[in-house]
Amino acid sequence: MSVNLTLLLVMGVLYTVGVYLLLERSLTRVLLGIVLLTNGTNLLILHTGGRPGAAPLYDSALAGEDYSDPLPQALILTSIVISLAVTAFLLGMIYRSWVLGRRDEIQDDVEDRRVARQSSYDVEDDAEIPADTTEFDTSPGDEAAGRDPDEDVEAPGAPTAWREGTR
C-alpha cells in the first residue's frame, strides 16, 4: 500500500481546524467543525481502503487481490448519511436559537453558574462507610442449635444431588 502524503496532510488540516471550530461557542462554527471532521474521516476511511483496483464484480480472469475493497466505500456512504443528519439537526438548533434569542452564541445559563459554584461534596455518596456493612447477624447460638456455620448454603435452583450433599 502506498502512502499519499498529500492526502494525509489534508486529513491532518481538516481534523485540526475541525477540532478548533468545535471548541467555539458559536453554533455555526460548531457546525462547520463537525462538517470538517466528517470530511476528514471520510478521507481517512478512503485512504485505509488501499490502492484502487478493479470493480468488485466477479470476473474469473482476475485474481482476488486485484479487486478493490467495497467496504470502505460503503462506510463512507454511511458516514455521509450520518453527517447529513447531524448537520440537519445542528441547523435546526441554530435556527431555533436565532428565533428565540437573536444570537448564535451559546450563553452560560444562570442555573449552570449556580451548579458550578456548588460544592462537589455529596453527603450520600461521599460519607464514610463503616467497615462491616453486613445486615445479617451471625450469633454464637448457631453452634448450639446444631448448625455448622461453615456449611454451604444451598441455592434455590441447585440440582437435587447437590442438595442431598453428594457432589
From TrEMBL:
<keyword id="KW-0472">Membrane</keyword>
<feature type="region of interest" description="Disordered">
    <location>
        <begin position="113"/>
        <end position="167"/>
    </location>
</feature>
<comment type="similarity">
    <text>Belongs to the CPA3 antiporters (TC 2.A.63) subunit C family.</text>
</comment>
<keyword id="KW-1133">Transmembrane helix</keyword>
<dbReference type="InterPro" id="IPR039428">
    <property type="entry name" value="NUOK/Mnh_C1-like"/>
</dbReference>
<dbReference type="Pfam" id="PF00420">
    <property type="entry name" value="Oxidored_q2"/>
</dbReference>
<dbReference type="InterPro" id="IPR050601">
    <property type="entry name" value="CPA3_antiporter_subunitC"/>
</dbReference>
<feature type="transmembrane region" description="Helical">
    <location>
        <begin position="70"/>
        <end position="95"/>
    </location>
</feature>
<keyword id="KW-1003">Cell membrane</keyword>
<protein>
    <submittedName>
        <fullName>Sodium:proton antiporter</fullName>
    </submittedName>
</protein>
<feature type="transmembrane region" description="Helical">
    <location>
        <begin position="30"/>
        <end position="50"/>
    </location>
</feature>
<dbReference type="GO" id="GO:0005886">
    <property type="term" value="C:plasma membrane"/>
</dbReference>
<feature type="transmembrane region" description="Helical">
    <location>
        <begin position="6"/>
        <end position="23"/>
    </location>
</feature>
<keyword id="KW-0812">Transmembrane</keyword>
